[in-house]
Amino acid sequence: MLTVGFAFALMGVAFLVTTLVYPHVLSYAINHHIVDNPNARKLQRVPVPVMGGTTVFIGLLVAVIIGCVFAPSPEVVKIMALLFVMYLLGVWDDVKDVSAAFRFAAEMFVVWMMMLLLGVEINDFHGLWGLYEIEDLVSIPLSLIAGVGIMNAINLIDGVDGYCSTYGVMACFCFAIIFYYAGDMTMFTLALIAIGALIPFFFHNVFGKTSKMFLGDGGSLMLGTLLAIFTFSVLSKDSPCAQYADDGVSLVALVLAILAVPVFDTLKVMIFRVVKGRSPFHPDKTHLHHLFIELNYSHLITSAIIVTVNALIIVACFVSWKLGASIDWQVYIVIACSLLFTWGYYFFMEHEHRKNDGAGSAVFQRACKRGKATNFTNGAAWKFLRGIVDSRILGGKAAIQQEASQKPERPDPRIK
């Protein structure tokens, strides 16, 4: 029997395991040169190991195994199998660059198996626009599109240090609350475990120098799959969460609010790639996080701003419900808030940037000045945290060796 205390204990297990395995995975990535190399569209200037998702997956896996020993759950075993498939696909893509067509087909297959094995899909709108249960003819393609869309939306936000992990913690926390009050302790526990596994990675990813790793496609696709499962679990016709609809809560609006920024930002990027005659999967630097980096904001503050705004969209959804908005209007409010930030703010700042022959308007220049003020990586607190995560204990010998190799050699005084 899963209890709240046991769920938090498993969250602690995930945190501890991820922390302990991190230096070993880092060492493996460095020794086998599994790195993300810099190029014109990427923000880092040096190669960075790209196996952070492996540490998160191991932490998640160990905590789930321990949980299943005391509270066996065939459902969780199936979920972990699906996450493992997407993790492998992502790691393969990190190492070998999988074709977009094969990756899309694999994602469709995993979403299909998600529906078959777990019995969850988007097949109940709970009264939105007068719709309740949806026929398979509509729900199956809708679920396939939504599932693949969520996976790729999460994958595409893994471009700034701390963004994907911070968002993942926030989203899992929100789903944990939803599942807890619905009485779904299995999903509640799984959401907490994911939080525990993501937090250690976050600190290395943001504050680490020699111990930094990226989440990589293995981690981001796995996280996207987990959030897709959570979404389907909320919007399925037999979901315990259906009780929220009886209180006037729009479950569609609630889930859409949690996924707001990644989903609407990805829609913006892909639509305008097509408008410009390019493939929607063609990589570029037109995401919302690229705008904040262009405005000179640090990676940490960029992540904090975007995730905070996403949280405010969730608050707007909650407030609209408390004020008596209909379930239809709750959806409209979430969509409006999401578009205002991911589309409105982005295109407004891009317009301001083009003024004065590309030098930017006064509004754009003030934004850049504010952005510069957020770069405080030389502060005492930052150095303290960096020293901890890059230490021999948490960063491992590989981080120490990498730090030594990055230091310039002292010139021989005998050579004139």
Task: Walk me through what this model shows.
By secondary structure, the chain is mainly alpha-helical. The protein has one domain. The chain has helices at residues 4-31, 52-70, 74-96, 100-118, 136-156, 163-182, 185-207, 216-235, 251-258, 260-275, 288-294, 299-322, 327-354, 362-372, 380-389, 392-406; strands spanning 35-36, 48-49. A two-stranded antiparallel sheet has the order 1-2. The longest helix has 28 residues, at 4-31. It is globular. The termini are far apart. Residues 404-416 have low confidence and may be disordered.
Short description:
The protein is mainly α. 70% of the residues lie in helices and 1% in strands. The protein is built from 16 helices and 2 strands.
What is the string of helix and strand elements?
Answer: HEEHHHHHHHHHHHHHHH
Cα shape:
globular
Mean pLDDT: 89
Number of strands: 2
What is the spatial order of strands in the main beta sheet? Answer: 1-2
Main sheet makeup: 2 strands, antiparallel
Strand content: under 5%
Count structural domains.
1
* Secondary-structure content class: mainly alpha
| CA radius of gyration | 22 Å
The number of helices is 16
Task: Describe the structure using short key phrases.
416 residues; two-stranded antiparallel sheet; mainly alpha; globular
